Amino acid sequence: MEPDPTIQAKEPLMCLKEAELACSSRAPADRLSSVRWEVREGECWVVSGLHASGKTGLLKASAGLLPLPEGRLSLFGVDYWGTTEEKMCAIRRKIGFVFEDGDRLIPRLTLAENIALPLCYHENKDVSHFLEPLKAVLEYLRIPSLINFLPTQLTFYQKQLAVLAQAILIKSQLFFWDNFGEGLDVIQRFWLKRMLKSLSTGIESLHSTPAVVVVATQDLENFLDFGTHFGVITENDFLVFRGAESLKSSENPTVKKLLGDGSEN
Question: Which of 53, 99, 170, 194 is a good FRET partner for 28, with 20 to 30 A between their CA atoms?
Answer without folding.
Answer: 99
